[in-house]
Predict the 3D structure of the following.
Amino acid sequence: MQWTDVLASRALRMKASEIRELLKLLDQPDIISFAGGIPDPALLPVEKFARATAEALVDTAGLQYSVSEGYLPLRQWIRGRMEKLGIACADENILITSGSQQALDYLGKLLISPKDTALVSWPTYLGALGAFNAYEPVYDRLSLRGNRTVAQYRAAAEAAGGKVKFAYLSADFANPTGLTITREERERLIDLCDELNCAILEDGAYQQLRYNGEAVPPILALEIARKGDLEKCRTIYSGSFSKTLSPGLRVGWVVAAREVIERLVLLKQAADLHTATLNQIVVAKVAADDFDGHVAHLREVYGRRRDLMLEALAREMPEGVSWTKPEGGMFVWVTLPEGLDGAALLADALERDKVAFVPGRAFYADGAQGNMLRLSFSLHEKAATDEGIARIGRAIRRALAP
Amino acid sequence: MQWTDVLASRALRMKASEIRELLKLLDQPDIISFAGGIPDPALLPVEKFARATAEALVDTAGLQYSVSEGYLPLRQWIRGRMEKLGIACADENILITSGSQQALDYLGKLLISPKDTALVSWPTYLGALGAFNAYEPVYDRLSLRGNRTVAQYRAAAEAAGGKVKFAYLSADFANPTGLTITREERERLIDLCDELNCAILEDGAYQQLRYNGEAVPPILALEIARKGDLEKCRTIYSGSFSKTLSPGLRVGWVVAAREVIERLVLLKQAADLHTATLNQIVVAKVAADDFDGHVAHLREVYGRRRDLMLEALAREMPEGVSWTKPEGGMFVWVTLPEGLDGAALLADALERDKVAFVPGRAFYADGAQGNMLRLSFSLHEKAATDEGIARIGRAIRRALAP
């Protein structure tokens, strides 16, 4: 059987994610890893989950089929959280997904016909590029500095053979840069997408993890403030419990106008019926049990680890290396001197220094820029951070040596 | 925002499943429902699941990210089961999916480019049609009686603008007919697909639920017996724990040649990262705890309920109505006299007789045949079965009355 004879054209675009391949290295105990956007397992509320599952499994409801839109009490809890962020919505504006990765897949499926254009930041979350790739889009570079006109975006999309369908971005502490876009940039994005008549996909995966600075309202909140009603908005917001309660249970959500949610429900029905029932029940129970207190603790720990990483970088990086100073999330984005390549550096650093990170190229839709590294500070306290960053400094110095 | 301006062409093909809409009716206590292929909640091993989750949640492994291919001990357990069915395979031939519905979605995504042809039985599982629809195939009718030539299938696919990519079918106790295809038909299907050079998608969702008669080897087992090695086979087998242990946990699997599994792993990575970790761990624990004893009990109960339904049908159906006599699974497929319409009958029977079933039209890719009903016997013992089937008989008599 020659499988390439029967594959769909989209299947030929799929390739292994460098992050996922790298995760396999985390099992080696002598490697200090800054790869992977993984919550610290020690911070997952496992006792609460044990209690909640024991409570849930007094009957069979969690083991049985359930509705595609998701478990109502969980959607109600999410509605309450969204309202606090300025996103007034009804239960019918919320769909539960199996993690926010699935939301990206479904939104690609809903919106992209082959050759349509997706506007993305440069760099962008590589999992989003992976999810969208299956639907064969063309990528164009989203600029929030206003240096490209609507006509230019539109002409580029037409030249590529389709239309601009959406702009995708993570507004807060983006993966991989750690950067947050300003309120003014968010407003400009709404203007731009209003003119382009395209959707805005706002990825809120890290939104709750702010360590300092002032919160900026979600794009969807700003759009509702402007237009008066979620039903009139083009922003589709995705959220996740992966960075706060548990990544392994795969529970996330989408908030959008009713018409979008209704279509996503149909799509989910056809794709996997529903997100696991027990997982939704249990997450609803644990979320209802002092979510704010739990997240405050996460902020304290991760915020301290970010500080430790920034201090170590300041101490250990050779001249010519720069990095972002994120106000939240899990990542610092490092720019190496031009001419250095992150992937080559990783191969060398893994082998000789026993330290891991994610090379930056895969985060660019065109794969053009190679001198970047993504470092996650979520896992390590001072000793490992200091040692690991010193190892990276050593590897960079070696690479720079004439 | 005019959402239809930005939808992908595939999104316009999606429509609500009649079964899922009907499930909402199950909440009304005075309705006797034969709709939905739902395991009896009383037969789900909830104590075992409570014990298994308590054991699993002594640490955080179940709450953390895991690999896209699935939890190794679960894949190993599945490998053992597959070997008993004549499907010798390695762990690398197995992918864990979020239910076998997700397997159908992923296989459509892997294989179908728009206008490609999918061969399906007439009728076929409507969830498979729903999953495949998203990838915009054309359907052609699979005949196992040998009354269409390879050249005819090929010409039809070319005329439709693509190639035959696969034949999909449920070999045992198919949804909706309850029928099992013979060994000779399975062999003929392999011949046909060898000549067409297309894949075979074998849906084994009900395979374990045989109540009488002799087991027929899975198509994949017959193909391995013929070709000597799974790696040379074109059959992709999907299985599920939904009908045996729990539908709500959404755990299923795919067995296929390594090249197919590797591509599905990439696809799953991009689509939802992995099936929920805890669910896989817990299902592995419960499956390891006397699966055969548990399934033997299910067979006894469901087999008795099938007998009760067949007896009630023989007693209550007016002349001109016929039905299948399945050897397993959950469904009986009823043919009404020509001219009657299942959907009209349902509307009337729900309203006047308080009884529910699934009208058959949605199971036909061309929606052409309306005088069929699908009845599930999984939920009811004698009293409800007798009363419910009597009500359906009454409704049919009313519809037949001049």
The first helix of chain A runs from residue 18 to 23. The mean pLDDT of chain A is 95. Chain A touches chain B through 89 residues (CB under 8 Å).
